[in-house]
Structure formats: C-alpha cells, structure tokens
Amino acid sequence: MNYFLCLLFLFCSVLAATEPKKPVYPSVYHIEFEFSLPYAKLVEQYVVDYDAENNKERIDIYNGLFTSYYRYDKPNQDLYEVIVTQNNQTCFKNMGPHSSNIDLGDSNLTPILPDLTDWTFKEQVVQNGWKCNLWEYNPTAYNRTSYYKFYAKIDTDEPIKLELVGVDYVFGSHYDQYVFDFFKYVPKKVDSSIFEIPTVCNNPHDSHHHVFGRQTEKLHHLIPEPHHVSKSRFDKFTSLFTKNYGSEQERKERQQIFNDNYKKIQLHNHQHTDYKMKINHFADLTFNEFKQYYTLPEKTLPTEQEKIDLKIEEWKPNKFKNYELPDSFDWRDYGAVSNIKDQAVCGSCWAFSVIGALEGQLSLSKGKLTELSEQNVIDCTWDAKVPSYGCDGSDQWKGYEALMELGGVMSEEDYPYLAVTGYCGFDTSKKQLSIESYKFIPKTEEDVMQALYELGPLSVSYDVAESNVYYGGGYYYEPKCSTTDLDHAVLMIGWGNYNNDPSKPYWLIKNSWSTHWGDEGYMYISRKDNNCGFCTDATSPVLSRD
C-alpha cells in the first residue's frame, strides 16, 4: 500500500511539474488584434488601450472608422463614440450607465485578456507560428456549452490567440465562432494622451438615434470573466453570459426578472410543440428593456405625399393569371437566393433585406447568382435625398431611393462587409446593376404570395416579439406581435405547409443572423392573420435595363 501511495505521489508531482503556471495579465496594457467571424467572412482590426488602474479605455476599429472612449475616471462618466457617417466623422455622447439607451453597469471596462483562474491547461502546441500553452474553458448552462481556447507563448505568456465557439452574446440565441488573433501586446504601459476626447466631440450628437455601444458591446460579452459554477440557476445564467451588476439591490431585481422569464420559457416549452424557446442573455431584461436596447427604431412607410413626390407605385396583381399557385414554393430551388449571411453587431438588417431582393432580381435577369454588397448600401446612403443611417437602421424603400440616386450596387467581392459604417467607396465601373424603381405589394396574403411567385424574393419587415428573441426552430406563430409596428427586415423566399399540415401554412423567411439562429438561418412563420406583419411592408425592386 505504501509503495502504491509513493507511486501515486510521484505521478502527481511529475504532472504538477509539467503543467505551466497560469498567466496573470496586468490591469494596464496596449493590445492589437484581428477579431473575426469565419462564417460571416468578417475580419475586424482592433486596437485597445486598457487602463483599469485609472478607469479608462479606448477601443479603435478599422484604424479609426469607429472609436469608443470610456472615461469612468470622471464623476459624470463620459462615454463617446466617433464614427464615420458619409465620409465625415461624427461624435455621439452617452450619459453613462443610467442612460436610457444602454445600461453598462458599474464594471464597464473590457479586459481583452481573460482571467484564467477557472481555465484548464490542455497541451503545448504551435499556434500562429509560435510554441504555445493551450488553456481551455467550457462553461455550461441549460445544455448550452461555450468552448473557449486561449493560446499563450511558452515562457513569456504573451497572448497569441483566443477562440470561442458558443452563444452569440450580443444578439442572443444562436451559436457562432469568434476568433481573436493578437499580434501586438505591450504590458503595463499605455500612452495617457490617447484617452483625450477629440475636438469633434466638442459638440457631440446625443445618442437618442445612435445605438450607443453596439459595436464594442460584443467585446464586453465575448471575453469570459472568472466565476465558479454555482448550483443556483441565476448564478449559472450570470456566469454564462458574463453579467455584472452595479449593486446587490440591482442583482436581486435582475434575478427576479430572470426567474419570471425562465418560468415563461419553461412554460412555453411544456405547452407548445410547434417551436421551442431557449434561454439567452436577454433573460434578465424586461421585454420593454429589450425593445429599447436591441431593436431598431420603428420602421415607417412612405406618406401619401411622399408616394406622389417620389412616384412610388403599387404592384398590380395579374387578375387574368392562367396558372394555379403551388402548395409550396422556394426560390432557393431556382438559384435566386444567396447563402445565409451574418449582419453581426450592426443594425443593417434593412440593407440585407434590400440586397437579398436585388440578388434575386439579378439572378432572374442574368441567370446567375451574384452576391451583392450590403456594405455599399450602408456606406453610401447617408446624404441621399431620402437618407438612411447605416448601422443605425433605415427602411427598405429609403434604401431603394438612395441607391437609385447613387447609380447602382457593387458585388460583395469588390465591396466586402465590415459591420460598421465606413467611407463610401462606390465605383460605378464595378456596379453589378442599377435600380429603375421599386413597387409596394398590396397587403393581402394572396397578393403577396402571387407577387412572390411572379416577381422573385421580396423584401419584408416584421415585429420582433418577445418569443421571437428566443426562437430556436419550428413553426412560429405569435398572436401577441403587431402587424404594423415593425422593427426588423428580412427576405421572404417561399411558402408551404409545415410538415405537410394544411393547418400550419407558413412563409419561408431568410434572416441575417447566421445559420446558428432559427432553422439554419431560416424561419417558418405562420401566414395566419398576417402574423407579425410580414405582408404589411413587402417590396420588390425593378432593375434598369442598362
């Protein structure tokens, strides 16, 4: 027995000796990295100066196209964002954690380098050309596991890479892959002058329209914070979604809201079988708070005077059609729908909806599907006669108007997606199409179905109801959503009967939240009673014949 214990002690001693000491990173550093979503083919360049000792932080994206200043060293907690809007810098100011736009709480700075207290050493590997120690961390809650990997240089502990496959903490209910590739790290030192607020912020815009903090919010949620797994449901939730609260009283209030939402979701999943709902990071918010923080401004339809001034036409159905509409139809079967895309943390759903409709028209016109550029639409419509607002949202008809004025749209290949508003780089010599006009579809199921069949994929809008925030697949029907108060834009590509059941007629919808949301990126939404307003704002563009 003593011999066995000696061998066990020797084995444990050798194991302990071979496992490296966990890196502990300072509270002040400068770091540069590329953040990417491989599925979205999105690569963002970040520069972060982090000074927790003085409660300051600056985050630069794409060499200054988007810059956030966090100054919690001041009593009024100044928060500024400088972004490019139609080739000019614009500054927005938020009043701090208690602003009506976004509640950042007390722990507002974003440490890019994770605390590895609860991480486990896996092995020594070569990553990005360097010999590294690999550390792993896999928190689980409600059967949703997130998988983190962190690579640090052997001996120096310099960070090389951080990977996550898990929940999209910014928009909620789908898994995705996130990668941080670090290429410059300067510990214990930052240039204090870079925290100075720029002169463009001397007269900043308020953040009433601008969705403040949206672009950098992903860093707050994707970087894991240390925690010990608790048996408490709320502790598991706060751990999974790295939630922090400013006071114990706030924590108690959030826990009550979470418990209420959890019961609603569990009750739904016990009572309904057509679709499922899942817990995500919105579960500690009331629905009013969710609508305030995460949906776009209410979409608008053109007024009667605007219809006259802009010569907007309504599509007229062919009353003498000599065909019967099939029971099911899907424009994907005819090559008119591109792959699922990911708008990431940018309020650009309207641009994805417009581009989806244009891709369909171009495919039907040329016989070839070409992926077009949402970024072209986002960047180049700010100062149009009928302007749009990039990542802060718009209406599809306004996008058509601006693109008609601009003169066309380039391809995704020539004008790749950035998920931030940038400088307008439209090159008329590389345009793939131009728009002659667009038409609104009459607001009946029969007309929308016929227009979808005759014209091609339609740009549509809908009301994101509370249950839709947690949609995880299945036949979706929500009697509580509105048919007129619309706040999200998607692409309608077909119809059918769910599981061949005539009592469950659906519209087939292509969303822009990657394949990890819904049914591989698609939604089967009930056609009953214009559920959630999918027939209220249907449009189809008309291409020029040039």
From TrEMBL:
Q: Does the keyword Membrane apply?
A: no
Q: Which InterPro entries match?
A: Papain-like_cys_pep_sf, Pept_asp_AS, Pept_cys_AS, Pept_his_AS, Peptidase_C1A, Peptidase_C1A_C, Peptidase_C1A_papain-like, Prot_inhib_I29
Alphabetized SMART domains for the sequence: Inhibitor_I29, Pept_C1
Q: Where is the Peptidase C1A papain C-terminal domain?
A: 325-542
- Which keywords does UniProt give here? Disulfide bond, Signal
- According to the lineage, what is the superkingdom? Eukaryota
Similarity comment: Belongs to the peptidase C1 family.
Pfam families (UniProt xref): Inhibitor_I29 (PF08246), Peptidase_C1 (PF00112)
PROSITE patterns per record: THIOL_PROTEASE_ASN, THIOL_PROTEASE_CYS, THIOL_PROTEASE_HIS
Q: Which residues form the signal peptide?
A: 1-16
- Species annotation: Anaeramoeba flamelloides
- Ranges for domain Cathepsin propeptide inhibitor come to 234-290
Q: What is this protein called?
A: Uncharacterized protein
Decide whether keyword DNA-binding is in the record: no
